[in-house]
Write a structure and sequence with these properties.
The chain is of the alpha/beta class. It has 13 helices and 20 strands. Helices cover about 25% and strands about 20% of the residues. The strands form four sheets. It has a six-stranded mixed beta sheet. Strands 13-12-11-10-19-20 form a six-stranded mixed beta sheet. The protein starts with a helix and ends in a 7-residue tail after the last strand.
Length: about 500
């Protein structure tokens, strides 16, 4: 607490009228980019292989344009670089370039036999931290609709690649049938919308005279967005002290006057997944058969614990009268496992759902349960984020633990979840791969990361993106505050000291 703050809390009662501190507002305009079909239109009978062809069709023109600009008139040793349309059109000894989809052949990747063993309650191998082979048996392939081509060369050692990303490679095929890479290109960052662009375009369609509705909102400067992840609520009453400190801080109840003024600038809370601790492991077949013999009305407390969801609902309902909340699901939350995870149903929050939008409304509610991944505009800035699954899965493909480097490469590949559907469960898209990034965000955040990290990256067309790795609150006690004027983040840490 700041100097003198404790004196504000320990002063004697008086009749002095204290000024009312009002919380700043911010514009909020979400997108439904990752909404899935409903009802009978939602099918899982399709082949996942179509996703790779959809992704290649969407990103191939962009990467081919960059490759043509870089290698179109290049000569090496008196030989001009030739473009080939398909992987199988590559000829031995000819200098050429081709675009396709990367496939990583890794013996340690999970296979269907592991899933079958889990379905039959057989002890499956423990999940691996990395898929990288210690013996060097991993192979990098480039594939398209015609076939596959093995890639080798120095660029593979200095570049990050994973299954599902689209690249263009320049080199030549050797006598062994391998393609030796000389240079490589990725699609890089797409076009980035201007701040307030989408809000002003909507205002031009809905107002007379071309006056933007956002003009009044822009005048309220200094607003911030709080981003938190990994609350890990398990319903244990003895494990909520840090959470209570967070709640009192956001409500301005545990601070002095100056800190309350700073807290009043927080215009929205974004919860980036894993709000609830993961449930109990599956019971053995013998245990399940014993439970079925004694049927009860309602739920069995031994199989389902409502305390975590109830505690999360209480936490949200306490904050909502003061601050709007955007809630993303995570891999441990009560939502579908495969990406994109759909919003957690309001029925899970009997108290907080009163702040949701009314059915059929086009405007988001004060409490907005959204998909994972999610994107939208906050004060005109394009935000994009997820609960951490794409980065956690990409971590298994690469060496090291540089999460910001993984986030940067994911944006430059223009794919929000490149390893889906290979090793990351997802919906089998048939018409359009929703993970393809069509517009570059201004802020890209990833939840449930080991520690807080941030940086700014730049694109070829002067795009700038603020990357934020949001740590798990249950482990670090940290919340990220992002200034909506300059996109500069700061971290507030909550910690309980045990003198014993």
């Amino acid at each position: 607490m700041e100097d003198g703050g404790y004196r504000d809390l320990l002063t004697s009662p008086s009749d002095e009228a204290y000024p009312t501190i009002k919380r700043l507002n911010s514009s909020y305009n979400p997108l439904d980019t990752f909404a899935l079909p409903r009802g009978d239109d939602k099918q899982y009978r399709q082949q996942y292989g179509d996703m790779y062809f959809l992704r290649l069709a969407m990103l191939k023109p962009a990467v081919e344009q960059l490759a043509a600009e870089a290698w179109g008139e290049m000569e090496i040793g008196g030989e001009s670089v030739r473009r080939v349309d398909r992987v199988l059109d590559v000829r031995q000894g000819e200098l050429c370039w081709v675009a396709g989809t990367v496939y990583m052949e890794m013996p340690l990747k999970p296979n269907i036999l592991d899933d079958i063993s889990k379905d039959h309650w057989i002890a499956a191998p423990p999940p691996r931290e990395k898929y990288l082979s210690p013996t060097g048996d991993d192979m990098t392939m480039l594939e398209d609709e015609s076939g596959r081509l093995r890639l080798i060369g120095t660029p593979l050692q200095i570049s990050m690649l994973a299954t599902g990303c689209i690249i263009a490679v320049m080199g030549t095929e050797n006598a062994n049938g391998d393609f030796e890479i000389i240079d490589m290109k990725v699609p890089d960052l797409p076009r980035q919308p201007q701040r307030w662009e989408r809000d002003e375009e909507a205002a031009l369609l809905t107002t007379d005279g071309g006056k933007s509705k956002t003009n009044g909102q822009k005048k309220e400067r200094g607003a911030k967005v709080a981003i938190i992840s990994g609350l890990g609520i398990n319903g244990d009453e003895g494990n909520t002290l840090t959470l209570d400190l967070l709640m009192e801080y956001l409500l301005g109840e545990a601070c002095g006057t100056s800190t309350q003024t700073d807290v009043s600038k927080i215009s929205r809370l974004v919860i980036a997944g894993n709000s609830i601790s993961e449930g109990s492991p599956l019971h053995l077949r013998e245990e399940l058969s014993d439970k079925k013999s004694s049927k009860k009305y309602g739920y069995d407390s031994a199989a389902y614990n409502p305390a975590p969801t109830k505690r999360l609902d209480e936490f949200l309902a306490t904050l909502l009268p003061s601050i709007p909340i955007t809630l993303l699901p995570g891999d441990g939350d009560p939502a579908n496992v495969s990406l994109p995870q759909q919003p957690i149903h309001p029925a899970m929050f009997p108290r907080s759902r009163n702040y949701c939008a009314t059915p059929g409304s086009s405007e988001p509610g004060w409490f907005h349960s959204v998909s994972n991944p999610w994107e939208g505009d906050v004060d005109g800035w394009r935000f994009m984020g997820n609960g951490g699954q794409p980065i956690d899965d990409l971590f298994k493909y690469v060496e090291g633990d540089d999460r910001l480097d993984m986030m940067e490469n994911l944006l430059r590949w223009r794919c929000g979840a490149p390893t889906a559907p290979d090793t990351l469960w997802c919906y089998p898209f048939q018409d359009k791969d929703q993970f393809v990034i069509e517009e570059c965000p201004h802020v890209y955040f990833v939840g449930s990361q080991p520690r807080f990290e941030t940086t700014v990256i730049e694109g070829p067309a002067r795009q700038t993106v603020r990357l934020i790795a949001v740590p798990r609150f249950k482990e670090t006690g940290e919340i990220v505050l992002l200034d909506l004027e300059n996109l500069e983040p700061e971290v507030v840490k909550f910690e309980v000291f045990n003198e014993s």
